[in-house]
Amino acid sequence: MLLIPLAVAAAVAWKGRVVVHADHVGIITRRYVRPHTDRAFRHVNPENARGVLARTLLPGTHWMWPVINSVDCVPRVHVPPDMIGVVTALEGHSRSGRGRLARHVDCDDFQDGEQFLLGDGKRKGEQGVQVTTLAGGQSYYINPRLFRVEMRPRTYVPPGTIGVVQAREGGVRPPDRRFGRHVECDSFQDGEAFLAGDGEQGRQLAILGGGAYYDINPELFDVITVDNVTDSRDGLTEAHLREVSIEEDYTGVVITLDGAESERDLDGAVAPRVAGHSSFRLPWVFLANGGQRGVQEETLGKGPSYALNPWFVRVMVIPTRVLILKWHNKQTSEADNYDADLGQITVKVQGRFELSVDLWQNLQIPQQVAPTLVSQFGGASTAGLGGLVDDPAPMKRFVRDVLGVAVTGYFNEIAMTNSVFEFLDSYEDVRKNLTDRVKHALGKWGVETLETNLGDFEPTDPSMLDALKAELMEEMRGKKLDEAVKNAEREDAIDQYMARAEARRAGLELKAEVEALGQDNVAMIRIVREFAGFDVPKYIGGGGDISAYLSTLPLPAVQDLLARLRQLRTDQQLTPGPGRQELTQAVRGDTGGSGGGDDDADVTAVEDATEDAFGTTTAVEGEVPSARKPDEGR
Q1: Please, where are the H alpha helices in 518-545?
Q2: What does the pLDDT read at residue 371?
Q3: Which of 86-105 are b and which e, b meaning 16 or more Cβ less than 10 Å from the residue's Cβ?
């Protein structure tokens, strides 16, 4: 009799024996028992009610009642190393929130189905896609009747690039904020921390660094990298997602696209520095510390690459090396292109002569000046996308509106006040004054002026050169005539000075003679000398007529003069004046004569002197005596 119960027991034991092989999991289904009272567990239940049980059998040998329980062995879930497992709960409570994702329940990576359904003390498991994922490179004993696991690739960000993140779940951000609230969530790998920290939907301030894999739930976050940027609808390009690198001799001017409203009213003003944001790598710190939107005083220099959020900052590259700006006919495009708006300088002098000249200006922009230039001359817009921008427009506007206006204004000024020849003659003054004008214009912006080189002035129309030469010749001729007139005026002035000097000298001599000889005697001597200077012919034609000869001599006139002098002396009873003896000696040319003598003797002396001067000897026929000079001796 005992054999029968033992045989039945052995049969039951054998039938109830369950072996779960390695890498498999046993799924238990119960029959012929009461169903679970909670309608949330109609298909899978956490207890021993009818239907599929939430708990599973791990690999090994197990014993189950053979009629009531049945076990199906299925392979365990394996997540490859480059994948993550996105879990969807097929059974559980309804989601209490409005989100699409079920919140995290501590259930040993979904391997403890009973814990998932009953809850971990914080919340009970909910149906639908779970916020928690399964890490790659592992296997999980998960009940496939309770959870469905979908393999999704891990998020990879290539080196030298960044990944930007948009949250698909979370709270709704206020309309005055461009970004969702920043929440520390292990680079978006901890979805539960993001939601628990009141993370908000939309663009996130934090980014993903390059050269790493991330286990990010794609049902919670959209990650844009260089590998999928073409599918983005935000207008991003690969360039926006590359790390920002500033080359040598450049500086990066930062424009923040979010922040506090600026109270600056002045043009060209920039936002003050803010501490703690690691060169704008931590934008949430920048905002928390009161950072303002717009152009920042702090710039980025040469050095390491900067992983910056292109939704938050724009970096505009400004050269700090020496720039050579040229005003000339540009035949080809040049590398710098900052002087693209500067053409060859043309100046119209005297309203009709057009002269052209080339100009080279060297300048350098200090690093601390660059933000002001960007703020004033463009590039400060906070709309659109950020990233690294190598746009020459602000520099071109600065060169055109400041430097170009200063140069053009100077040449227009001197063209209105100078003739073409004055314009050309004052080349060095033009260059010096232009240098001063440029230095003053750039100095107001803090830009350093290095060297100004001015080319030669040339006529724009070759035919104008002939007209210019002709006018130059006329002007030079006029200048020569002006110089001749000035020289003639100088010579007249010299002659007047010499005449006055000669008159002064003659006056002094005459005064000395009058004091020595007497006024009347000096007058007589000078008259005689004048007559002695008369020219007389040596020969008289007509056969030696003596009357013709006598008519040519001044002797009658002298004799008449002498007669009148005698009459004058008789009438006025002239007395011998001082120096009478000297007078006689002067007339005779005798310096050693005796002193004394009466008036008749004096007159006789004058007569003798006159005869000696004019030579009154009677000429023979056909022969005329030569007149002797007053200084000839007897």
Answers
A1: 519-532
A2: 93
A3: bbebebbbeeeeebebbbbb
Residue with tokens 């260059």: 431
The lowest-confidence range among 105-119, 326-340, 549-563 is 549-563
What is the enclosing helix (H) or strand (E) of 478?
Answer: helix 464-517
CA 592, 598, 602, 605 torsion-angle sign:
negative
Based on DSSP, count helices (H) and strands (E) in the chain, helices before strands.
15, 26
Spatial separation of the C-alpha atoms in residues 211 and 231, rounded to whole Å:
21
Counting beta carbons within 10 angstroms of the beta carbon of residue 62, is it exposed (0 to 12), middle (13 to 18) or buried (19 or more)? Answer: middle
User: What are 184's two structure tokens?
Assistant: 């520390």
Confidence class for position 155, pLDDT limits 50, 70, 90: very high
Nearest 5°: the CA angle 626, 630, 632 is 70
Q: In angstroms, rounded to a whole number, what is the distance separating the alpha carbons of residues 25 and 60?
A: 9
Structure-token pair, residue 99? 């989100």
74 pairs with which residues across the strands? 25
Amino acid at 447: V
Nearest to 467 by CA among 525, 421, 533, 522: 421
Q: pTM for the complete prediction?
A: 0.68
DSSP state of 366: -
**What does the alpha-carbon distance between residue 169 and residue 186 come to, in Å, rounded to a whole number?**
17
In our burial notation (b when 16+ CB lie closer than 10 A, e otherwise), range 210-245 reads beeebbbbbbbbebbbbbebeebeeebeeebbbbbb
Using CA atoms, how far apart are residues 216 and 191, in angstroms rounded to an integer? 8
Asked if 192 contacts 208 with a C-beta cutoff of 8 angstroms, the reply is no
- Which pLDDT value is given to residue 349? 72
**For residue 612, what are its two tokens?**
């000696």
Q: Which residue has the higher pLDDT, 224 or 392?
A: 224
What value does the mean pLDDT take over residues 464-480?
71
The length of the chain in residues reads 634
Which tokens hold the place of 159?
């080196």
Q: What is the C-alpha to C-alpha distance for residues 451 and 66, in angstroms, rounded to an integer?
A: 101
Of 276, 270, 267, the C-alpha closest to 254 is 270
pLDDT digits (tens, 9 = 90+) for 37-54: 887 788 898 888 888 999
- Asked if 300 and 279 touch (Cβ cutoff 8 Å), the reply is yes
Q: What is the DSSP letter of 533?
A: T
The pLDDT score that the predictor gives to residue 67 is 79
Rounded Cα–Cα distance for residues 71 and 58 (Å): 11
- Give the span between the Cα atoms of 385 and 240, in whole angstroms: 8
If you average pLDDT over every residue of the chain, what do you get? 80
Dump pLDDT digits (tens) for 335-356: 467 776 677 777 777 666 677 7
Which of 267, 390, 257, 403 has the alpha carbon at shortest distance from 318?
390
- What pairing do the DSSP bridges indicate for beta strands 44-45 and 51-57? parallel
Backbone dihedral angles phi then psi of residue 76, each to the nearest 5 degrees = -70, 165
Query: Coil, helix or strand for 300?
Result: strand
Give me the mean pLDDT over the 591-598 stretch.
44
Sequence-distant (6+) residues with CB within 8 A of 628 are 612, 613, 615
